[in-house]
Amino acid sequence: MPAGDAWFEEGEFIHELxxxxxxxxxxxxxxxxxxxxxxxxxxxxxxxxxxxxxxRSALVVGVAGFEVGVKQCIARxxxxxxxxxxxxxxxxVPLILRKYLPMLACGAECSPDTLLPSKPILRIxxxxxxxxxxxxxxxxxxxxxxxxxxxxLAIRHILYLVDGYSGHAWAFTYSAGVPAKAVTTxxxxxxxxxxxx
Length: 197
Fold this sequence. Notes:
Elements: E1 6-9, E2 12-16, H1 21-32, H2 39-50, H3 55-77, H4 82-87, H5 93-100, H6 119-138, H7 145-165, H8 180-189
Antiparallel strand pairs: 1-2
Helix pairs in contact: 2-3, 2-7, 3-6, 3-7, 6-7, 7-8
C-alpha cells in the first residue's frame, strides 16, 4: 500500500484511503501478528463481489457475515458467553443488536451516539434477515438489485460498529450515526470493493 493514501492496480486508481498514524500502526500490528481479517468482513466482501451475478448467494452470504460478525464481537466482549454464542441457537441478530449489544461494555472509547445503529438501519437488517430466510427456506427470489445493495451496505455499517465495540475506535467513523438515507445513496453510487493485490 503506497504511503497509506491510495491503492493502485494495473495503473488504475481504485480507492483513496485517508488514514491516521494510529490506524496505520494498528494495521501494521495486525499484519505482524498474523491476524486475519474478521470473518464477517470476509463474507461481506464475498457477498458484495457477487451481488450482480449471484444475488441469491450474495444475500445469503452477506447476512451470514452480519450474523458471524455480531456473534464474534459478543464472544470477544463476554468470553464466558463464547460457547453459548457459538453452539446454541440464539435470538435473531437484529434483536441482539437492539437489546443485548447496548448492555455490553464497549471495548473502545465511544459516545452514546455511536453505540446503536439507527432504527432505519435496523429495519433494513430485519428485512435482509427475513428475505434471506425466505430465499433459503421457501425458495423465494432474491431482492431487486437496489434493495440488495442497500442491505449489503447496512451490513457493512454494522460490521464496522461491532469492530468499534471490539476495541477498534477508528471503526466507529464508518458506522456511527449513518442514516438509512446515506446507505441508500451509497447504494446508488458505489462500485464493488476491490482488494489490493
